[in-house]
Specification:
By secondary structure, this protein is an alpha+beta fold. The protein has two domains: 133 residues, no CATH class; 38 residues, no CATH class. Strands 1, 2, 4, 5, 11 and 12 form a six-stranded mixed β-sheet that branches. It has a four-stranded antiparallel β-sheet with strand order 7-8-9-10, with no helix packed on it. A two-stranded antiparallel sheet has the order 3-6. The protein is globular. The relative contact order is 0.20.
């Protein structure tokens, strides 16, 4: 059997965009904000927000980014019957809020990185390579390397690495005809 991927996207159409410009119908903005502020902005301009995209009252969603371990969590449709595009985006965003709150409560060792640094210097437990800007974080047991300069690594129940909630955007929820009871997320930063 051929496995087919089924995508639910979260395109945004800007009210004053001209045809062919970014944010127009031909080139929509695909990023649905996961922080509270960014989600509110996304919901205002979400294209086809009231379209029913999943006709199930409960779904299993795999949450894997930016977490140490993947987990499957159940989301329940707010109306008890189905998810519209807006309801699905909002349910996923709210789950991220709960995850980040749970991580904050269970974290003993949050590594917050300040934005001012000099290349080749060790600042606390952060070292930035002089030529490449590659950042090395000390987790207490080993070094973790990132090159994108994002903010922290935590040691709570989720093990969030690399991104604050304001950095994250949902671009797609997908499943396959083989695994139609499991939905996966495409997250961008």
């Amino acid at each position: 059997m051929l496995i087919k991927r089924i995508d639910i996207t979260f395109n945004h159409i800007y009210p004053n965009s001209k045809l062919g410009e970014y944010g127009s119908h031909l080139d929509p903005d695909p990023y649905f904000g996961l922080s509270k502020e960014n989600m509110k902005k996304s919901l205002k301009i979400l294209h086809n927000k009231d379209e029913i995209v999943i006709e199930k009252k409960k779904i299993n969603v795999e949450f894997k980014y930016p977490f140490k371990d993947d987990r499957v969590l159940e989301l329940v449709a707010p109306n008890g019957k189905f998810f519209t595009r807006a309801q699905l985006g909002k349910a996923i965003a709210k789950q991220y809020w709960e995850i980040y709150d749970e991580e904050k409560e269970s974290t003993e060792n949050k590594k917050t990185i300040v934005s001012k640094y000099k290349k080749g210097q060790v600042i606390g437990e952060l070292y930035i390579e002089p030529e490449t800007d590659i950042q090395h974080y000390w987790t207490g047991t080993d070094w973790v390397v990132t090159s994108d300069g994002h903010k922290y690594i935590t040691d709570g129940v989720w093990g969030i690495w690399g991104h604050e909630l304001d950095d994250l955007y949902l671009t797609s929820v997908y499943t396959t005809n083989k695994e139609k009871d499991l939905f996966r997320l495409e997250i961008s930063h």
